[in-house]
Amino acid sequence: MPSVTMRVLGGVAAACLATTAFTSTAAADNYQPDRHRPIEGTVVATGLNSPRHLTAAPNGDLYVAEAGTGGDDCLVMGEEGPVLDEGVPIPCGSWDPEEHPDWGEIRLGDTGSITKITRKGHQSRVVTGLPAVDLGGGEATGPSDVAVRGNKLMVTVGLGADPAVRDLAADLFDEELYEDLATVQQVKLSGKKTSARTVADLGQFEADNNPHPAMVDTNPNAIVSDGSGWIITDAGGNSVLRMDHKGRLSTLAVPPGGEAEAPPFLELPPGTMIPFEPVPTAAERGRDGSVYISVLTGFPFPVGGSTIWKVSPSGKVTSWATGLTNVTDLTFGPDGSLYAVQLANNGLLSEDLTGSLLKIRKGKSTHQVIADGLFAPYGVTMHKSNAYVTTGTVVPGGGEVVRFDLRRCR
């Protein structure tokens, strides 16, 4: 289902970008759940290629994962994966879109990167040459998150497909580059030089274990430090994983999915309910020792269908907050409050990528709007009293990082 998420998101992006690069708050007025006035932000970085999650180092420097712009290598993709002719992928541009409306082309390359924004405001790409896949419509997958530990960065690299697609791309084009899709990479920073190595292969873990058995699909998303190890969300595998200091993976949780009313274009009887998958996007360990998980939800991406799930130290999964829509990230603020990003306030099928930053209320279905009118926001991180949010996540070269001073919310 996450690969369907990406296709829909790409189509929505194309529709939105044809009219505007920033959506006003008016489009989201119908969802605002309280009387708090959203605050204005300050842009601290521009020109990013499909920025996703980001993290703040202890000294206030920011690191942003950029999914990139794909590249020159190309595969024709159908509903079942790459389109083959006697075992060989058909050439891109050789097929009739009217005859095969469900087919599409993905373009792969080495345009994924990590950008650093220093606390003094200097912006530069400190890691380049990571694998990236352009899914069309401005949507890409590649570097999804970055965590900092000393002079080392831990980077999740997405895929959004069966690991067999990665293996095919590696065989056809560049084995060394594309084998890094669906992995965790450890990047060592040493002056202007960097060196990377694969720490964990989430694609192989999904193929071997498939924690959520709907389909074999992997799309590593968020990573966060957790003691001596790490917590990772696999939005394709619908799972939350734990990685120890040696790179060994285990399943921490599989959050529940749900049901939503079928959209009219499916032409099902009115009121028909269809299942949706959870699609976990981020996880953080709270002060109580529990892990808190955000979910995007899979198709049909229901408005109000996203839940923040709590996994207790004993492994019990319970609902912690509801009423959210297409949540892509969460983080705890300095006061212990939980904040979350909504990618599309009115749902991905609305073709409106107006999103927001919310302060989450435990046990509630309505939440405080901190920042609104954000175009395609995705990641959030905190440093002192500031929240930093990536926006323009579907715009190659048009992504930004925006800072919000939370003291203005009081």
Structure notes:
The chain is mainly β. It has a single domain (2-409), classed as TolB, C-terminal domain (Neuraminidase), CATH 2.120.10. The chain is 9% helix and 46% strand. It has helices spanning 2-17, 163-172, 175-178, 202-209; strands at 42-48, 51-56, 62-66, 73-78, 81-82, 84-85, 88-89, 104-117, 123-136, 139-141, 143-149, 152-157, 183-190, 193-201, 220-226, 229-234, 239-243, 249-253, 258-261, 273-276, 280-285, 291-295, 306-311, 317-324, 327-332, 338-342, 354-359, 368-375, 380-383, 386-391, 399-405. The longest helix has 16 residues, at 2-17. The chain is globular and about 65 Å long. Residues 1-35 have low confidence and may be disordered. Residues 1-26 form the signal peptide.
Q: Largest beta sheet, briefly?
A: 7 strands, antiparallel
CATH domain class name:
Mainly Beta
Over the alpha carbons, how many angstroms does the gyration radius reach? 20 Å
Structural class: mainly beta
Average pLDDT, rounded to a whole number, is 89
Number of domains: 1
Q: Helical segment tally?
A: 4
Question: Which CATH-level-2 architecture?
Answer: 6 Propeller
Strand content: over 45%
What is the distance, rounded to the nearest whole angstrom, between the alpha carbons of the first and last residues? Answer: 40 Å
CATH superfamily membership? TolB, C-terminal domain
Shape descriptor: globular
InterPro entries: ScyD/ScyE-like, WD40/YVTN_repeat-like_dom_sf
Organism: Ornithinimicrobium faecis
Signal peptide: 1-26
Keywords: Signal
